[in-house]
Amino acid sequence: VPQARAGIISTVEVLKVMEAFVNEPNYTVWSDLSCNLGILGTLLSHTDFHEDIQVFVRDVFSPIGERLGWDPKPGEGHLDALLRGLVLGKLGKAGHRATLEEARRRFREHVEGKHILSADLRSPVYVTVLKHGDSSTLDTMLKLHKQADMQEEKNRIERVLGAISQPELIQKVLTFALSEEVRPQDTVSVIGGVAGGSKQGRKAAWKFVRDNWEELYNRYQGGFLISRLIKV
């Protein structure tokens, strides 16, 4: 992908190489593929090819997603659990119908307390339902954040809130980022999640940072968080 971004080789060639890894079981390989497809998706988000990339993601990730399934298999290792979360999250964000339906079902049971999601499935499920959700979905997620006893769960939710798509809900997430509900050191994660969530999110996050620059700068001046904020 760096070579494609530099114009040395065509993006089409990169995508053909990616297709060759469809039967690869290795987590590190899929993590790299996911990261690089994310970069391509960002680059193409301002073009007519954005939906084509989503179709490509669904095509490439669905075979490994079907093999892994949603539930752990006997004898599988830690990397298999990581791979499952990575693949299901990628498929869910890309709008893979079966993944979206199952994520919504499991999310509903999680919220109702019928069947609590395992830690490794929470991020992919949260991302999926938010990406394709509405104001009710966001309100439920914010309620889960408020009720969470563990800071780890609060941080997990904070990182995925930016997946929400509607402009008015993106603004709600950004306002939440500066609220007392979020620790000052975690505000950047929420804003960064919005910036990385969509084209609309990037624009909204950049405007939000400019509009609230004085408060943000006073919070983080001289620290690494201000540079991280600008980078995202």
Automatic annotation (TrEMBL):
One of its GO terms (molecular function) is zinc ion binding. InterPro entries: ERAP1-like_C_dom (IPR024571), Peptidase_M1_aminopeptidases (IPR050344). Signal peptide: none annotated. One of its GO terms (biological process) is peptide catabolic process. GO terms for cellular component: cytoplasm; extracellular space; membrane. Gene3D superfamilies: 1.25.50.20. Keywords: Aminopeptidase, Hydrolase, Protease. Residues 4-231 form the ERAP1-like C-terminal domain. The keyword Protease applies. It comes from the Eukaryota. Pfam families: ERAP1_C. Belongs to the peptidase M1 family. This is PSA aminopeptidase. It comes from Chloropsis cyanopogon.
